[in-house]
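Re: the multi-chain job from yesterday

Posting the exact lines I submitted so nobody has to dig through the queue logs.
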Amino acid sequence: MVKKNIMLKIKNLHAKVEGKDILKGINLEIKAGEVHAIMGPNGSGKSTLASVITGKEEYEMTEGEILFEKENLEDISPEERAHKGIFMSFQYPIEIPGITTTNFIKTAINETRKARGQNDMPAKDMLKMLREKCDLLDIDQKFLSRSINDGFSGGEKKRNEIFQMAMLEPKLAILDETDSGLDIDALKIVANGVNKLKRQDNAVMVITHYQRLLDHIIPDYVHVLFDGKIVKSGNKELAVELEKKGYDWIKEEIKE
Amino acid sequence: MLQLKEKLLSSFIAFENQKDVDSYVHGIRTKAIKNFEKEGFPTKKMENWKYTSLKKALNYDYKLFPSESQTLEFKDIKKYLIDEIESYKIIFVDGKYCSHLSETTHEGMDICILSSALTQPKYDLVIENYFDKISKKDGITCLNTAFSSEGTYINIPNNVQVDKPIQVIYFSTGKNESVLYQPRNLIVVGENSHVEIIERHQSLNNNSVLVNSVSEIYCNKRSIVKHYKIQNDKRNASLIDNTFVSQERNSDYNLHTFSLGGELTRNNLSIFQNDERIESTIKGITIIGENQHVDHNTLIHHKKPNCNSYQDYKGIFGENSVGVFNGQVLVEKEAQKTNAFQANNNVLISDKATINTKPQLEIFADDVKCSHGCTVGELDKNALFYLRSRGIPEKEATALLMYGFANKVLGSVSIPEVKTRINNIIANKLNVKIGFDI
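And the result, structure tokens for all chains:
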């Protein structure tokens, strides 16, 4: 068996937002080719974890470290993290009127290529890729000339996130509550898109409250986040158990 | 200022003596110069000019009539035209009409020049009915009226859809002199008629230029007028644009003002709704930087019931630039069921930039819907993070957001080529790479 590279290594991560401690010592290791699910009740710190990894400025790391492909991410800007291959699908994608999705994605791809010392992607290749990824996610090409998420339904916004992920081909994709606001059909399309993008050299972190997305994106590991710490890890059976019993039994377990 | 005023007053006699002193307009000009003598130039002491000083702009030794006019070829002016489309063209160079660059018509309508209309008897009736009828009688407008001799004359009879847009450009080439230009435009659009007008003032050299322009626009019943003002002049050029619009029943006047260049720009815009079921839409994009000043002074006068007005002005202010928005909406007692909307949204991208925004709603009717909102702010932090998280560096992401902010106004531009042109100017100004759409 080929030894898999460690892609993301989080050591004793503490972080605060607006002066409040949210993450209180997270340890996590994600290898290339793996799918990790982070589950947990509301307010446990799931989205904070995603924001800290992607470098959102309001989130202050107070202790520990995040290594991405052995490189410490401290003091690295969000755009540089993106250039290194980190991507987050937003829980609440932002509406930006006045900029078309095409122009946005084109700028994102070419800035990333520039940072990697590559030339702009030729327009022909870009068009081809746009078409392919639209097909993959069952997106009408007309939506590309609409402003980013402007007036999109919840489902369309989430699909647009995965579309961007498909275009940017990240090494590590963090899906923050991508299932919220999706009906079952849209959920299947999104999950199918994510699965098709899955390779041996990339990894996915799925953050979710419910198990239903994990029926479609099968995780290798499931971690339960509670009060800023990972309190339990297991395989996909853990997700099923959580769905059945809720989070209360975990809380009980911790108390014991 | 005083010097210039004296100079103008003494030049008037010589100017007017060259003209036909028995004409109808002679009386108007003579009255106007007296008015100007009394009122003078506006100063910051006046409420409407509180934030805009003309001191610097009036401090040059302007020529009132350029001593020589340079010959321009099409290649010299091509880039200032929207030349991807067929259009009528009225081109002026140094205050004089330039026939070889223009494309005018008298077939079924008049798209030509004011000097003809003022001097040929067949136009007398139109001049008597419309000339100087709605223009304000303040100093700056009267000054223009006193010297009004050249400009655009458009008269569209009833039931005519003008087949292509009309582009009007005033070029200034004056080699070694500062010049004050005073173009005068008269536009009369007949019942059921439809016209699109693109207007621009462009200096081609680095001498100081001041343009004091007056336009009177009459929109008769059910007419539709789409008007675009491209203000992207050189940094040595200042503009005072006075536009007066008179609207009749069911007419629709739609104006976009793109204020991107120039040193000082003052837009005085007054719209008078004289009857019912009138639509007036005025929008603006202002993007300025170092040592630039743009002032939008608007008035929408609702006189009758069941009319709408919609104002949307957006601005991005960098360096030490100054922006002013003074939007007056006057709803008379009779104007019930008026629907008036006004928005002025601004982004300051420098600590040194200033914006003065003042909505002025005077409502005397009791059954109306009037809303206004002014915002002055920075760019949305969450949107900025969203773009950065996709790999777009902070500087580019900021530019892209500003571009998007301004770009929203372009949605209602009816001529795609104008939209593309403005889009490109804005993208260029903000250093955004665009031009790739499916």
